[in-house]
Amino acid sequence: MQITNIAMSKILFDEDFNCRGKITPMDVVDLAKSIREEGLIQAVSVCPLVGPRAKANPGKEYLLIAGYRRFTAFKINEQDHIPAVIRQDITREEDACFFNLAENLQRTELNILQEARALKKLEELGISEEDAALRLKMSRGWVQVRYMVLRLPRVVQEEIAAGWMTQKQIRDSYSHYKDSGELACFAAVRQFKDDKIKGRKGTRKKVKKSKAKDLETKARRDIPEIHELQDHIYQEFGGNNIATRLLAWCAGTITSGDVHLGLQEWAKTQERTYRMP
To answer: The whole model's pTM is what?
Structure first.
């Protein structure tokens, strides 16, 4: 898509819109240095500013929908203009939110709480779990867990943001909270944390023979099994990666084009060239 140099003063930088939340200058010092030395590798993305946002922000013509770290780095470098792709096709709030979240899921390691807060905006816009999962090309279980995070007490959300809780523990915590209230939920989280400190001895279960046998069985896997493994990889490795994208392709939730783009991005991290077939 065509890249245009846009005056930064015309772009609305709304941290409440961005799923990553507040970005401080310290977060992007290295990026700012890299841009000074090597230039900007990828332009930011903006869409026309319309509706209530436009009325509330006179003088602004565009909403920044992707590239908040890059934009902040340009501020540090005291730049007046920034290369941007203008997404004229994005005219609705929900489309802008989907674009921002999907772009961040592909590029950065968001914690589950950040992802949940982004989904909250979609929920407020009336987007169902099924539609959110379909448009983000994630499993419905992935979306459900993050909606559960939104409903848990703030102190539990902070523990989740720390990154040590598994998705199963989040589900269990939510069940305790829903069935027995905050105190039961807090007790469950404390137990999970104690088990984590002790090497998870308290939460590790014996592998059943049938499960152990399954680990050695070659068989065609159904969609729930693929999604379960996808969620496990996501949790263990801290975000989406080429493995989760390949599984999404196997499950039929992303296109062949999407998976080839994922392979192309992965190849860049390995300093290799990938050619689409």
So the answer is: 0.56
